[in-house]
Request: fold
Amino acid sequence: MLAQLVRWSWIGDNLDDIGVATVEHLQLTVLSVLLGLVVAVPLAVLVRRRRWLEGPVSGIAGVLYTVPSLAAFALLVPVLGLTSLWTPVLPLATYSLLILLRNTLTGLDSVPEQLREAADAMGYRPLRRFLEVEVPLALPAVVAGVRVATVTNVGLVTVTALLGRGGLGAFILDGIRRSIPFPTSIIVGTVGAILLAIALDLALLWLQRAIAPWQRRAAA
Amino acid sequence: MISLEHVGVTYPGTSSPAVDDLSLEVAEGEIVVLVGPSGCGKTTTLKTINRLVEPTSGTIRVDGTDVTAVPVHELRRGIGYVVQSSGLLPHRTVRQNVGTVPRLLGWDAGRISDRVEELVELMGLEAELLARYPGELSGGQQQRVGVARALAADPPVLLMDEPFGAVDPIVRARLQDELLDLQARVAKTIVLVTHDVDEAVRLADRVAVLRVGGTLAQVASPDELLQHPADDFVADLLGGDRTLRRLALHRVDELDLGPVGPGADGLPRIPCDATQRGAVDALVAAGTDRAVVVEGDEVRGIVALEQLTGGR
Reply:
């Protein structure tokens, strides 16, 4: 059965293409999550200062999250063009916004008020307090959000194959579009994307633990 | 060293003040304890000194300088601050926590390291704790680290907000002893907030009793306070066993000890550094009305029960 579905010789012949597609897939994923972070973190800091913004800001992020990915890509093609990197990256970043915003807020809110006051009382100035006290303590929650956003975006990147990009998604599309469907190509795209998602998730899980050694040791 | 002149604090959105026209002087090297029921503004009063709370009226001076005359972060780096459950930064090791203020002051690494090790030793903490995170310490250890951190840059003034509120009574008593011990060596000017009257009486050179509404009910030495509470409010706050508690403030050898007569061999023996309350306990336990006060093996004299119960 498997031998019929997967033609190993085809995989061997196309290793270079698979490698290139994997790198592209990784680029689109990382770029979109980074862009999401660049927007989400300042927004979260702003919301903490002007709490009334929380409703509207999460509302907008929530509405953006509901836009079907295919529609978002299609809408941006006339604006940014089919070949622009922004056409896939912008919607992907938008999808990561909700989870990144929420987790950054959760992280910053989890810093006890008493600790902020203790830092103030020692003579921390606001920026340094933010960087040395609030950011390190909020970071584990932020990275947890980055993990979810990354895994989600690895899946979504495959859809951008319809724009002529899509990294490993191109193999899936190619397998479907042939006059006689070609399972090997579909499986390469699918399994590749899954493995990439798992690898990134594990790497981020490691990061999440590495940046908060005090949490592990206190629990031990 | 610290002077509060007609300090008033009214929080935004409230009509009645949290602190009302409060004036208090704290002399250099003195421990003043602010005590009172919850809502009496004792913590608010404390926080006006390092400007965690800005007073709505009045003036506060530390070492003669108006606290609003210097940048707030500089003021705070010169005032040690200890809070309940220590307020240690959980993501920083004991070494980093204790070195916080020196680092903010820009000391070089070697000097910080030396100072941190000196303080950890002063607080009776083992050096191996330096690499640990606060979450890995016991409550008592955290509290000692909190005090070490407050002392790091050798500030003349120490503010302590319910510093021993989060530890069990046995550890609390030990930490209180250690604080008095420490104070005998470092002689800081300390303002400490507590709701525990026993703690106030035990630690204070002078106790400032606050009533709800943030006004001073009485400022007096523990002895004076227990002997002459200013009004019913203060008397109620101190509780019913004032006389016995006052005895705990005095050593038995402060009394005029009587000459040792015949028959003293059968009497209980009390060390001369025992408190008068301890002497009452010993007498009641032994069922006698007299005891021999000793210093080591040397007999100092006789204490009689009526000396303890009759007042002085």
User: Anything to note?
Assistant: DSSP finds 13 helices and 13 strands in chain B. The first helix of chain B runs from residue 42 to 49. Residues 226 and 240 of chain B are 10 Å apart (CA to CA).
